[in-house]
Amino acid sequence: MPGGEIDHVLAKELALFIENDSQLNRSQYQPIVLNLARKKAKGIYDPKLAVKLVVYLVESGRKKYFKEVADLGPINKATKEAAAKDLLAGMQDEINMALKKIRSKKKKSAPKKGKKRRKPRKAKPGSLKGTLKWINETLNRAAVRFD
Predict the structure, then answer these.
(1) For the stretch 57-81, what's the b/e string if a residue is b when 16 or more beta carbons lie within 10 angstroms of its beta carbon?
(2) pLDDT at 144 over 70
(3) Angle CA(116)–CA(119)–CA(121) in degrees, nearest 5?
(4) Which of 87, 93, 4, 8 is nearest to 50 (CA)?
(5) Residue with the larger pLDDT of the pair 113 and 99
(6) In sequence order, what DSSP letters do the residues of 39-103 get, joined into one string?
(7) From CA 95, how far away is CA 85, in angstroms rounded?
(8) What is the widest separation between alpha-carbon atoms in the chain?
(9) Which backbone phi and psi does 110 adopt, to 5 degrees?
């Protein structure tokens, strides 16, 4: 694995911390789930790039973990990737649920055949459009035209 030896205990600890932190969940975890679900729906989902995306979440989680719990020093790339893979494995159910929602919305919002014509709006009395309409009607009735 590139980046040194994997610290499995630290990777699991970080993954658990990130899953249980409400601020990280709301600000990064859920948007990543939706992003990956959209990619699956489009057919452009790449597992390698998904791990790379989740590594950014792991880095944010590492910073927050070290502020709140303990500063253990830098973490190597292999440990970050192991934590990202662990998080991604836990995300799969949520990604699939979000994917089902996306697909059901597409079925409901299928484009309708033909456009419906809108009725022209009536001019409101006192509005500029209403006043101009009134002037035109009055001039047409009087048969006076200004060219």
Answers:
(1) bbebbbebbeeeeeeeeebbebbbb
(2) no
(3) 145
(4) 87
(5) 99
(6) HHHHT---HHHHHHHHHHHHHHHHHHHHHHT-------HHHHHHHHHHHHHHHHHHHHHHHHHHH
(7) 14
(8) 94
(9) -65, 140
Task: Using the structure block, give the residue that is written with the tokens 């601020």.
Answer: 23
- Counting every residue written for the chain, the total comes to 147
Q: Evaluate the CA torsion angle 65, 66, 69, 71 in order and state its sign.
A: positive
Q: Are the CB atoms for 50 and 86 separated by under 8 Å?
A: no
In which residue are the tokens 């030896």 written? 5
Put simply, whether the predicted model's pTM sits higher than 0.85 gets the answer no
> Exposed/middle/buried for 53, CB within 10 Å: 0-12, 13-18, 19+?
middle
